[in-house]
Write the structure tokens for this entry.
Amino acid sequence: MKKQISISEINIILVKPRDGLIGFASFILNGDFYMGSIAIFSKLDGNIRLLFPRKNNVDCFYPIRKEIGEYLERTIQKKLNNILTNNNNGNINTWREPPANSS
């Protein structure tokens, strides 16, 4: 059985870079769940790494399957590249990633 995931309303807040941290992301997952406070770290190869929120040493949420985590990184990387290269006319809430099928 294939599960279809969709990510919409991606919002990225850039911060002054420090120790690789470049911003925070939030998005709506499958039109049902708000996922926020996801730290975005830059990697030496130019890609990003996502760090999902923790509170009192307890993970709040995170992708269980590797392919979902990679999909999230690719999707947020595209949005980040769009912001950094085009400045998206000052509006970072309008870009949407089409739904993807994942197994």
